[in-house]
Design goal:
Blueprint: H1 5-9, E1 21-25, H2 35-52, E2 56-59, H3 73-81, E3 88-95, H4 101-114, E4 119-124, H5 131-138, H6 150-162, H7 181-184, E5 197-201, H8 204-213, E6 217-219, H9 228-238, E7 250-258, H10 262-280, H11 290-295, H12 300-310, E8 314-316, H13 318-332, E9 336-340, H14 346-359
Parallel strand pairs: 1-2, 1-9, 2-3, 3-4, 4-5, 5-6, 6-7, 7-8, 7-9
């Protein structure tokens, strides 16, 4: 890793925000909209994030979900790199067991060449889908996500990124290109940067591994809120200084939606919650409209799920969302908040980030 690796990881808070603010994009597709619409929204949000001082913009890998068009993070990030200049771009995350480590090293080496010094590689060990789809992705019925496989895959990926397999290793003469090997070729000049590796998680496994390896850690508070504080505590307790970081750095993903009117926020998060009800019961689809959600006959069990789910969505007016985010940051001690706005319409999502930026007094475009 370059000497300034920590500087590429740690962000700077702007305005009155307690910590750096970032964006997590699921490239959601609403009913009556297309994937093209969703990707255009992603470009608009990335440009807004860049102009208003959000630190990074990550895309999450999901599969076989009609309402989530982010099955190919590297492709989307290349598209976003062509439409931005400064904001950090990354995966939140790439699901490592779905891919050969060499392929990921090549993809993110290519992204680094496209956007030097502003690419992050966030890695998760879940499949990002159901078991059958994971089997189709991996061409095997044997699905391993545990301690035996993931650390080995991670170590192999980092070796490819750094081009430092030891002598005698079967991969010693294999190189991820673009990558460091180009600097050792006659006349070669290589970028001083390489994508920082982050570990993502929703439990203690990746928290402990990230701490042991001295890597930055991202926790999925937006769908595992009850585990947030224990996982962050475990990460900090397990942390060992490394060439990457001398002390822990943890961000949390947060569902946050700000609207001009509190009632509208409730309507939008109800629609997003209905989408989750359908996903959790094996009926994934496009994100429904608020009107469809209001007309839906929720069962008592579904109502209980919706209430529990929305209790962890920070939503309301801009001031209410700012207050909720401030409280969450104080409670968790997170070093960075990564906000994901889940709503049917791209215009609603874009407006949410704009309102939050205004509430914190983030920089405005010249």
């Amino acid at each position: 890793m370059p000497a300034d690796a920590a500087e590429e990881i740690r962000g700077t808070a702007h305005g009155t925000a307690p910590v750096p603010l970032s964006v997590l994009d699921l490239v959601t597709v609403g009913a009556g909209r297309t994937a093209t619409d969703a990707l255009r929204t992603s470009v608009d949000i990335a440009r807004l994030a860049e102009s208003r001082g959000f630190h990074r913009y990550w895309v999450a890998e999901h599969h076989s979900m009609p309402g989530v068009a982010s099955s190919s993070p590297a492709v989307i990030l290349a598209h976003l790199a062509a439409h931005t200049e400064r904001v950090r771009l990354g995966s939140g995350g790439v699901m490592l067991p779905n891919h050969a480590p060499l392929v990921i090293a090549e993809q993110f080496g290519t992204l680094e060449a496209m956007a030097p010094g502003r690419v992050d590689l966030g890695l998760g060990r879940a499949p990002g889908t159901d078991g059958a789809t994971a089997a189709a992705l991996r061409r095997t019925e044997r699905l391993n996500e545990g301690a035996d496989d993931f650390p080995q895959q991670l170590a192999e990926l980092i070796r490819f990124l750094d081009d430092d397999f030891p002598d005698g290793h079967p991969y010693r003469r294999i190189h991820a290109v673009p990558g460091p090997v180009q600097a050792t070729s006659p006349g070669g000049v290589q970028s001083p940067h390489r994508p920082p590796v982050w570990l993502l998680g929703s439990s203690g496994f990746s928290a402990r591994l990230a701490g042991t390896l001295g890597l930055p850690f991202a926790f999925a508070h937006h769908f595992s809120a009850q585990n947030t504080v224990p996982a962050l505590d475990l990460y900090r307790e397990s942390f060992r200084p490394s060439a990457v970081l001398d002390h822990p750095y943890a961000l949390i993903g947060v569902s946050a939606l700000a609207t001009d009117d509190e009632k509208e926020a409730r309507r939008q998060v109800l629609a997003a919650a209905l989408n989750m009800v359908r996903l959790r019961t094996g009926r994934p689809g496009l994100v429904p409209t608020p009107e469809e959600a209001e007309a839906y006959d929720f069962s008592p069990m579904e109502e209980e799920f919706v209430a529990s789910w929305n209790s962890n969505v920070v939503h309301g007016t801009a001031d209410e969302v700012r207050s909720g985010l401030d409280d969450l940051q104080k409670r968790t001690g997170a070093d960075e908040l990564m906000l994901t706005a889940n709503a049917h319409g791209g215009d609603v999502r874009l407006r949410s980030y704009e309102l939050i930026a205004d509430a914190y007094g983030l920089p405005t475009p010249a």
